[in-house]
Design goal:
The complex is a heterodimer of chains A (281) and B (410).
Chain A lengths: L8 E2 H4 L4 E3 L5 E4 L2 E6 L5 E8 L1 H8 L1 H15 L7 E4 L3 E4 L3 E3 L3 H4 L3 H9 L23 H12 L11 E3 H4 L3 E3 L5 E17 L2 E12 L18 H10 L4 E4 L3 E5 L4 E4 L15
Parallel strand pairs in A: 2-8, 10-15
Antiparallel strand pairs in A: 1-11, 2-3, 4-5, 4-9, 5-6, 7-8, 10-11, 11-12, 12-13, 14-15
Chain B lengths: L1 H17 L2 H14 L4 H25 L3 H44 L3 H18 L2 H11 L4 H10 L3 H10 L8 H15 L2 H13 L7 H33 L6 H47 L13 H19 L4 H26 L3 H4 L6 H27 L6
Helix pairs in contact in B: 1-6, 1-11, 2-9, 2-11, 2-12, 2-14, 3-9, 3-10, 3-11, 3-14, 3-16, 4-5, 4-10, 4-12, 4-13, 4-14, 5-12, 5-13, 6-12, 7-11, 7-12, 9-14, 9-16, 10-12, 11-12, 12-13, 14-16
Classes of the chains: A alpha+beta (281), B mainly alpha (410).
């Protein structure tokens, strides 16, 4: 089930929207967004996976996204800008799924599941009361109180004044690039990550390596720009034509990122060629 | 021997589970109006579902990712959500049709008005989805569904002029009384009946329920490549008996009773009883599959714990979705809407919604990140691309044809 990968990982393509699974194989949530923290060298590091309506809402955008976020913050006493958060130190492996090194009660991001379970499902006969049945673990009733305190703890606390700034991956995706001479380019469609030197929990942390720049057209996430041999021919030709403007930027090409205006200011005057990924046979 | 038994069981349930209310009604209706001139579409549809199911089964076996995981990962949350709305609308419509089909089968067996049965059937479906083990649902209704072989026996007992049947099937000769737009409208309906999206949601999620890995590939392929075509033969037999009995008599199928009528003509009351058992098994089994598919797909989009392999209390939101959909389906039916009409629209809307699920599966089946070295071969991609075009054409042509032919009534 684990396929060999090159060390680099495209965050939009290979991390966002993936299933998160806990140490017992239980499904926990989707990676609805990713928290990035600024590092002294100007790179960004992945510090947490964000889940739940507070993270999904902004990604949906528009009226529906706004409604999702507002409804969630009203129902849970969270601020609209918060979301459930799984610290990256809890992550054991990033494969086609994200495996956690801990159980789902430890990360406690499933408040709605709890609510449905205690209010609806357990009221019905035969919901499976004994905790030792079933293929993956169920929790004992005593953990309820603890998990509620943990849920509070997983909210994004206000960072101390001198703490490094944190951002969401979704805010970086879709930013426009501005070349050194002030002309505007296309948009950020993906963020390339590589394992950094620091070890958090059981894995190396992931830091930004570069940006993939292109036009937001259908098929951004299909991977044909990164693997020119991927079939079938018919789909490849159409998608590669739509994305013929796609290019790459190394992190050193970036001068500053204006998170408010949504502009990536570059030191350079042109994009690099997006090299095909080398890990595919 | 145990392995062989498991293989045979898989193939048999694939045959018996292939036919649902959509196949029953559409094949009988088409047989009664167009004879076997649309038999080629069943063939095209069966090859299509084989290609599609094999790809999605292989994706699950290699990566453990069922269909709606893939859809969200490849299309993103926005398009994925739109896809979820469309696919779930169609699947719920099919769910309504299946529950209505079970109620109709009970009506035929007992003479008691179908709508009396609706709440009873809905509760029964929910209890099975709540309590029964996954493989029990699949095996019991799959095996009972084999009762539909009675249609093939009936066709043989009717002793039709085989050469003229073959001739009308091979030349696709449309009866003169029918117009071309209706012919093509029903071609799309048959295509949608054979390639219903829920079949792939259920098939791929079932792979997770049963814990498939790469070692399961031969079994999975045997089920698909042997079971589905033989299920398709049952579909053709249903159309065949309608051609022999109903077409000359000028009876257009409007009720489930008329679907069974040729069997009664050929085999008497015993035949009818077996056909009714087959109807019950096919529609009840498919009701379970569609109901589960709604829970599976929504759970997969949002990343919830889903599945029958955990106790209900460990998959609370999944079971809440199933409970609410079952109530919704019963409420819709209790408006006394005609289940046959619901079925006819569900197969056409299935054809419309098909590209939504087909394209992401085709792409991921080619992605080495998920598949490692088990990516599509030349044949899978050649067929996959041909069907991509077919699926798109059928999807785009469906609504204009639906309006033009007033749902096939002209």
């Amino acid at each position: 089930m684990s396929t060999r990968r090159s060390p680099e990982l495209d965050a939009h393509h290979q991390l966002l929207d993936r299933q998160i699974i806990d140490v017992d194989g239980r499904m926990v949530a989707k990676v609805d967004d990713v928290e990035l923290e600024e590092r002294p060298d100007g790179r960004l590091a992945v510090t947490a996976l964000l889940t739940g309506p507070g993270a999904l809402g902004p990604r949906l955008g528009g009226a529906l996204g706004g409604l999702t976020t507002r409804a969630w913050s009203r129902l849970t006493d969270n601020r609209p800008e918060d979301s459930n958060r799984i610290d990256f130190s809890a992550v054991a492996a990033v494969e086609t799924v994200i495996r956690l090194a801990v159980g789902h009660t430890t990360v406690a991001v499933d408040g709605f599941e709890e609510w449905v379970r205690t209010r609806v499902i357990e009221a019905l006969p035969g919901a499976g009361d004994s905790p030792d049945v079933g293929r993956v673990g169920t929790r004992s009733p005593h953990t309820d109180e603890r998990s509620r305190t943990r849920l509070t703890a997983t909210r994004q606390a206000d960072p101390p004044r001198d703490a490094p700034a944190r951002h969401r991956l979704n805010d970086l995706l879709g930013m426009h690039v501005r070349f050194a001479d002030g002309t505007d380019g296309d948009q950020v469609t993906d963020v390339r990550l590589v394992p950094g030197d620091r070890v958090v929990g059981t894995t190396n942390e992931l830091v930004t390596e570069g940006l993939i720049i292109g036009r937001r057209r259908p098929g951004t996430l299909l991977g044909y720009d990164r693997n020119p041999k991927q079939g079938p021919w018919l789909v490849r030709v159409i998608i590669r034509y739509l994305h013929r403007h796609t290019g790459y930027l190394e992190w050193g090409d970036i001068d500053t990122i204006d998170w408010v205006a949504g502009i990536v200011q570059l030191r350079t005057q042109s994009l690099r060629t997006l090299q095909p990924r080398t890990d595919h046979p | 021997v145990k392995k062989l038994f498991a293989l045979a069981l898989g193939v048999l349930t694939a045959i018996g589970g292939f036919v649902d209310i959509g196949d029953l009604v559409t094949n009988a209706l088409v047989g009664s109006r167009f004879g076997l001139s649309l038999a080629w579409v069943v063939l095209v549809g069966v090859v299509g579902i084989c290609v599609f199911a094999e790809m999605s089964g292989r994706v699950v076996a290699c990566s453990g990712r069922p269909t709606f995981d893939i859809i969200r990962e490849r299309l993103g949350p926005r398009v994925g959500l739109a896809n979820l709305f469309g696919s779930m609308a169609v699947t719920l419509l099919t769910f309504v049709a299946e529950i209505g089909g079970v109620a109709l089968a009970f009506e035929l067996a007992t003479g008691v008005w179908e709508f009396f049965w609706v709440p009873f059937v809905a509760v029964l479906v929910w209890v099975v989805l709540w309590r029964a083990k996954f493989d029990l649902i699949e095996n019991v209704f799959g095996l009972l569904g084999l009762a539909l072989i009675v249609f093939a026996v009936a066709l043989w007992r009717l002793g039709p002029d085989w050469s003229s049947l073959w001739d009308s099937a091979a030349t696709a000769a449309k009866p003169r009384a029918e117009a071309w737009p209706s012919y093509w409208y029903y071609a799309i309906a048959l295509f949608g009946a054979a390639m219903t999206p829920y079949e792939v949601f259920f098939f791929s999620s079932g792979g997770v329920e049963e814990g498939w890995d790469e070692k399961s590939l031969p079994t999975m392929r045997a089920n698909v490549f042997v079971g589905f075509p033989l299920g398709g033969v049952l579909s053709l037999a249903i159309a065949g008996v309608a051609t022999v009995v109903l077409l000359p008599a000028g009876i257009e199928v409007e009720t489930l009773g008329q679907v069974a009528l040729p069997v009664t003509v050929a085999l008497g009351r015993i035949g009818l009883a077996i056909a009714l058992l087959g109807f019950f098994a096919a529609t009840f089994g498919a009701a379970c599959e569609t109901g589960l598919s709604v829970g599976y797909s929504i759970g997969q989009y949002f990343g919830w714990q889903w599945g029958k392999f955990v106790r209900p209390r460990a998959a609370a939101r999944f079971h809440l979705v199933i409970l609410l959909s079952t109530i919704l389906a019963a409420v819709v039916l209790l408006t006394t809407v005609d289940p046959i009409l619901v079925t006819e629209s569900s197969v056409v809307f299935s054809a419309i919604a098909l590209p939504l699920t087909y394209l992401p599966i085709l792409i991921v089946a080619n992605d080495p990140d998920y598949m490692s070295r088990r990516v599509n071969g030349v044949l899978a991609n050649a067929l996959g691309s041909v069907y991509l075009v077919l699926v798109l054409v059928a999807s785009l042509a469906a609504i204009p044809l639906m309006i033009w032919t007033k749902m096939g009534t002209t």
